[in-house]
């Protein structure tokens, strides 16, 4: 599949970037963290567990659907990267040009941001950021006004996309594709989940709004299927890194669908005394999944367990609370 997207696909964007002050580039290196996968999934999990009816008519359904939508976005990214196998810009390769005025403590952080391996098309940060912030803006429909939510989501998604070009780990076309893929997968995921705004049909509960009847299970299943396709393409192409990413996508989609089977969608928010240790445990599993990426079966088991726990927690929190009280 290599060659479907040109290796040299720039349009002169780095000439503009190279003229920017170093301080601006460092600032954008910080902005890129707003779409780090660990941050997005932590934010989505916290929203899913804690959101009240003040932000969505059915907060548990809204939160789980947001997680499913972003899972679909990452599955599409894994497929695209394995399919096109397009390299990153030369600026993403070592050595890093670290500003001499940065303190030693920040030099290592900066170098980690501006060096990146793997394939470049589409941008995972641009895709994940667009999907996450758009999904939150659409699904938490009682928070702020529509205009404020959409503007905020668009501003963050565009800032993240711009940051990937400014730190020279992606071409402009990579991030533009990422924004489109992210928005497109959200639309598909919401349609599968039964969002009446995407389906063009009235919801069954006007008082609860468009989140009342959402079912994220089909979107989780789609993510698993697309990730399986990405795995097949990655194996055929011998792309080891993409094999791991696709495997994690399969586990995340399957784990979300399994976890949702425990939930009826009407659960109250998770008590903090349950959520804090649960976040530590699931976060540990997630970190372990990536740390053990060389052992794919262990990675898949750890990822599946983490996602099942995250999605099922609202239904299990009562039992956990009783256990903690004993």
TrEMBL record:
Name recorded for this polypeptide: Phosphatase PAP2 family protein
Lineage: Archaea, Methanobacteriati, Methanobacteriota, Stenosarchaea group, Halobacteria
Cited InterPro entries: PAP2/HPO (IPR000326), PAP2/HPO_sf (IPR036938)
TM annotation in the entry: 23-50, 62-84, 119-138, 173-193, 214-237, 243-262, 298-316
Annotated signal sequence range: none
Domain of life: Archaea
Keywords for this protein: Membrane, Transmembrane, Transmembrane helix
Gene source species: Halorubrum ezzemoulense
CDD domains named in the record: PAP2_like
Pfam families the UniProt entry points to: PAP2
Domain Phosphatidic acid phosphatase type 2/haloperoxidase: 62-190
């Amino acid at each position: 599949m290599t060659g479907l997207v040109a290796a040299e696909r720039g349009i002169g964007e780095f000439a503009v970037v190279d003229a920017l002050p170093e301080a601006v580039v460092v600032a954008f290196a910080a902005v890129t963290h707003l779409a780090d996968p660990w941050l997005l999934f932590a934010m989505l999990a916290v929203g899913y567990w804690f959101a009240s009816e003040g932000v969505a008519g059915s907060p548990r359904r809204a939160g789980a659907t947001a997680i499913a939508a972003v899972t679909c976005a990452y599955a599409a990214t894994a497929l695209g990267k394995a399919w096109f196998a397009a390299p990153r810009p030369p600026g993403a390769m070592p050595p890093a040009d670290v500003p001499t005025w940065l303190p030693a403590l920040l030099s290592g952080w900066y170098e980690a941001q501006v060096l990146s391996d793997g394939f470049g098309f589409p941008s995972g940060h641009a895709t994940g950021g667009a999907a996450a912030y758009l999904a939150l803006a659409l699904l938490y429909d009682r928070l702020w006004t529509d205009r404020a939510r959409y503007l905020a989501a668009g501003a963050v998604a565009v800032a993240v996309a711009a940051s990937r070009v400014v730190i020279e780990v992606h071409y402009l076309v990579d991030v533009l594709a990422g924004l489109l893929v992210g928005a497109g997968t959200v639309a598909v995921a919401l349609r599968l989940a039964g969002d009446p705004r995407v389906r063009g049909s009235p919801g069954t509960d006007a008082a609860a709004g468009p989140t009342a009847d959402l079912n994220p299970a089909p979107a989780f299943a789609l993510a698993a299927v697309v990730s399986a396709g990405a795995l097949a393409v990655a194996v055929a192409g011998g792309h080891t890194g993409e094999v791991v990413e696709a495997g994690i996508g399969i586990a995340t989609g399957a784990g979300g669908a399994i976890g949702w089977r425990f939930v009826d969608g009407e659960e109250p928010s998770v008590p903090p005394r349950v959520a804090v240790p649960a976040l530590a445990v699931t976060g540990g599993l997630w970190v372990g999944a990536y740390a053990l990426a060389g052992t794919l079966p262990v990675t898949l088991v750890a990822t599946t367990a983490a996602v099942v726990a995250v999605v099922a927690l609202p239904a299990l929190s009562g039992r956990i609370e009783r256990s903690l009280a004993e």
